[in-house]
Amino acid sequence: MIRRRICIGSSHGWLITVDESSNMHLVNPLTGAQFPLPPVTTLPFVEAVHDSQGRLTGLILNRTYSLQDAHRIMFHKAILSAAPDQGSGFVVMMICNIWRALAFARAEDKAWTYIDTPDSFTDVIYYRGKFYTISYLGTVGAWEPHGLSFKPRRRVTRLHHVLGGVPGRQPNAGLQRPGVRRYGA
């Protein structure tokens, strides 16, 4: 049932959803079309916990979590490179787990591929053939397909250098709401 799923992203008219059993699907809310994504248990840091009847009851990440808690900890954001009904293939990139790591899956993949990087990520978007990420440290990365993996294409050292790099301008100047004073100002 779609209304019991959580939505962790949307693009190209499709929702990226997770159901109560941690199954992920692309869903077109207008047509009802669905496309299954690989199980999260195919990630190297995830194990399934089953009860005596074989039902999924939890996930082991760094410790055992109930499915409800695992949803909150495991799934942060996902983005889609193209609509699955366009026929050109697609890639889903996801920010996942307590470390906010990156993983991706292509249309034909049976498993998620983990991207091994020391960064933790806060956001991901898709623009003109590349996925762009921002880390908690403000590092912006551009990622593009490289064979069966993703490689960083380009990095901006720190986002605050971009925002505050205008001569004569204070870092983050103009990024506050009008009428709100900064402390100490």
UniProtKB/TrEMBL annotation:
<dbReference type="InterPro" id="IPR005174">
    <property type="entry name" value="KIB1-4_b-propeller"/>
</dbReference>
<protein>
    <submittedName>
        <fullName>F-box and DUF domain containing protein</fullName>
    </submittedName>
</protein>
<feature type="domain" description="KIB1-4 beta-propeller">
    <location>
        <begin position="3"/>
        <end position="146"/>
    </location>
</feature>
<dbReference type="Pfam" id="PF03478">
    <property type="entry name" value="Beta-prop_KIB1-4"/>
</dbReference>
